[in-house]
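User: Teach me something about this protein's shape.
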Amino acid sequence: MMKHMIEQENDNEIFQQVDFSKEQLAGCEFIECRFVNCSFSASDLTDTDFLDCSFEDCDFTLVKLNATGLKDVCFKRCKLMGFDFTLCSDFLFQVEFDVCQLDYALFTKKKMKKTTFRQCSLVECDFTECQLTESVFDDCILTGSTFYRSGLTKADFRTAIGFSIDPDQNHLKKARFSQAGLAGLLEKYDLRIEA
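Assistant: First, the predicted structure itself:
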């Protein structure tokens, strides 16, 4: 267990196996930092800024967010269940997810152009009025997730499963779907699609 002093400004640090739930993080700034196998469970990240940071195998269960900055942040194999991205600062907001558990996360009204979700569980997520132009849902599970008045222009759902997207309620121009995914677009019509 490595002990790190958390400063107001932290630059180019590597944090391994740190339990941040016991640390005062509100108002801190992290630039080009790497977090490996850390717990942020029940942490207060109010006004905390993360710029060009990566999180690997981290737990964000019940984290408190308010004006939290996620600027060019990559999450790998992280547990972000119920994470409320709507409370994060919109300024330079940019995230990427790789093999993450994002069930019940809220993305309502976030601008997330060109966001990549790779092999993520996105069960029961809320993407209402979310701007996801050119975003990629690569090998993701979207069962029960809500897409309503969402900007999905050029989004890629070819390898995603479980989604239900109403073409009349979302912007889908040039969005990409596999033949198997067509059922998720036609669900409201109660059609039987057979091979």
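Now, about its shape. Residues 9-80+87-99 form a domain with the Pectate Lyase C-like fold (CATH 2.160.20.80). The chain is about 0% helix and 20% strand. If you'd like, I can walk through any region in more detail.
User: That's plenty for now, thanks!
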